[in-house]
Amino acid sequence: MSRPPIVILTALDLEYQAVREKLVDPQTHRHPQGTRFEVGRLADGRCQVALAHVGMGNQAAAVLAERAITEFAPAALLFVGVAGALYPHIALGDVVVATRVYAYHGGTSEDDGLKSRPRAWDISHAADQAARHLARDGSWKRRLPADGQSCEVRFAPIAAGEVVLNSKVSAHARWIREHYNDAQAVEMEGAGVAQAGHLNRSLPVVVVRGISDRADGTKEDTDRERWQQRAVANAAAFAVSLAEELAAEARDDARRTTTETRRPAMPETIRNVAKGNARVGVQAGTVYGGIRITPEPAPPADLAEALADFRTRLQRARAAGHLDDDTYTAAEAELAVADKTLETDTPQSRGTLTLALKKLRGLIGDVAELAAELAIIIGLAQGLS
């Protein structure tokens, strides 16, 4: 792979299928030890995803998460699935992004009872910021099923154990309530993947869970009402949008690092800008060849003008062979979405605009001149909110 993918792991077949439906042309990738991944890209973007089914439990999740990290060296690792709610204010179908994962089964047994020995892993700051921004702008909801219900994205700790919790009064329920009472959801794999990420130079790990039951003895009823399918569809919609965002940030970071590494001590080209009444001569180390002084280009008057100018530059880049036909076609499609959103001015349209421009950034990121101009356009778009 030319770029590091995002690894997405699931525990249940229905969770796996919910994510797989978001992939374009998935191809089987077989690990030497038999683990099968499917690798594809997300529609309308350049984010590659390596998807695997790990089964239930933290131990299996940890082993196969480590295997996936070694095999793909991903930019981030996401775990997507369903969970039980621990508080009544959390609605069925809501999405919970784990800000902290507790391994709640650790402890020591003494004469006066069981003492907690908690372990916990926090989400990385950058991944947390990306997820919260995505939740605020609402652009991820474009991926929700057409017949889906509205849901809320919540950021909270979760508890990961080794049993299915389906009671409010059991010993396990009391243990969580007494020792981990800020946890809002309970599941069985998050601690394993969080540990694997921690042991791999703090690889960004995000656990995204859809609430499918209330962990209160009614799980059979909610399962019959197909809340697992509804909840995981919501979680998958958010997770793949987050994967796209994290992949774009990883590309930006890689380009920035490459540019800084290759920057010479004295650049061959010196660009001096005079603004207002200031006058600048030539400031340079050693001058070879001629000197050309040009005025500072004026910024675009508005976003519509900037998009029109960018479209012209995009066409020139294609004609010059800097973009292949498929990339150009995908970029034009995102430009069309951006143009359409300018016809209205609502929070939802502004979110759609920002998402389209970010997808466009991922498509043309290898063409430095286009990427620089698009950064200005994204700044203009963000100034609308």
Automatic annotation (TrEMBL):
<dbReference type="Pfam" id="PF01048">
    <property type="entry name" value="PNP_UDP_1"/>
</dbReference>
<protein>
    <submittedName>
        <fullName>Purine phosphorylase</fullName>
    </submittedName>
</protein>
<dbReference type="InterPro" id="IPR035994">
    <property type="entry name" value="Nucleoside_phosphorylase_sf"/>
</dbReference>
<dbReference type="InterPro" id="IPR000845">
    <property type="entry name" value="Nucleoside_phosphorylase_d"/>
</dbReference>
<feature type="domain" description="Nucleoside phosphorylase">
    <location>
        <begin position="5"/>
        <end position="242"/>
    </location>
</feature>
